[in-house]
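Recap quiz, item 2
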Amino acid sequence: NAGVTQTPKFRILKIGQSMTLQCTQDMNHNYMYWYRQDPGMGLKLIYYSVGAGITDKGEVPNGYNVSRSTTEDFPLRLELAAPSQTSVYFCASSRVTGGSGGAETQYFGPGTRLLVL
Amino acid sequence: GENVEQHPSTLSVQEGDSAVIKCTYSDSASNYFPWYKQELGKRPQLIIDIRSNVGEKKDQRIAVTLNKTAKHFSLHITETQPEDSAVYFCAAGKSNFGNEKLTFGTGTRLTIIP
């Protein structure tokens, strides 16, 4: 298994440009997440999905959009890039079942480093 | 929503000594507490986790303790080694009718001094 993969690894955007960060997992996980990590800071949840066709906002959703048309893929869209979106973006996935009794281990992708100038 | 505070933000210990990182959480309904290790330029990786029905869990040199009453949990690393140098994140999560998600602390940069 490749686990969670993300593309691209690094990207430079100009202010106002748009782009899509790709995330794919091959572990048949139902839950997927997008986080951003600013320098020296923790992880902040942008959006998450509990299954194909279902998405919900996290702590910092403004300026981003997501979709989940398949179990495997969870792309993150930036429509009008701003310098404040300069960050490292991590995608994660987990397998949550009805009998799990709580949140489950999240497996992270390698990250996408985004610079907006 | 949940708020997780983590201390200290930086920690330096001599090789072979122990390191302790502490976290507090605000939501008494949280029932899952993982710890992640992130090496420079790498992804966060789970090193140990604990659920609210357990007070302590050990895995070789790593242990986590949970005090539900006080709403705090701690990571203990014994016999530290240079490869333990990294940023460590605590997190808290709960099962909430299909909205399972984690709230992360701000991280502790651990440096092991040879």
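The first strand of chain A starts at residue 4 and ends at 7.
The interface with chain B takes residues 31, 33, 35, 40-45, 48, 50, 56, 58-59, 90, 94, 96, 100-111 of chain A (CB under 8 Å).
End of item.
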